[in-house]
Amino acid sequence: MAIVVTLDVMLATRKVKSRDLAEYVGITVANVSLLKQGKVKGVRFDTLERICEFLDCQPGDILRHVKD
Hints:
Blueprint: E1 2-5, H1 7-14, H2 18-25, H3 29-37, H4 45-55, H5 59-62, E2 63-66
Antiparallel strand pairs: 1-2
Helix pairs in contact: 2-3
């Protein structure tokens, strides 16, 4: 089983730049890039909350559970 990050899709849907998200959330653009690529082992709930606030979405809109 795997968690798939669809943050890149949500950013495109909302027509938001990674730089703007990073600034609002308080993380680096590099960290947003790693999140978009699914190359992180975890994300803090407060970071996830800020991402969802900025994108006006639910965690399930950017994180998906996929069976292998």
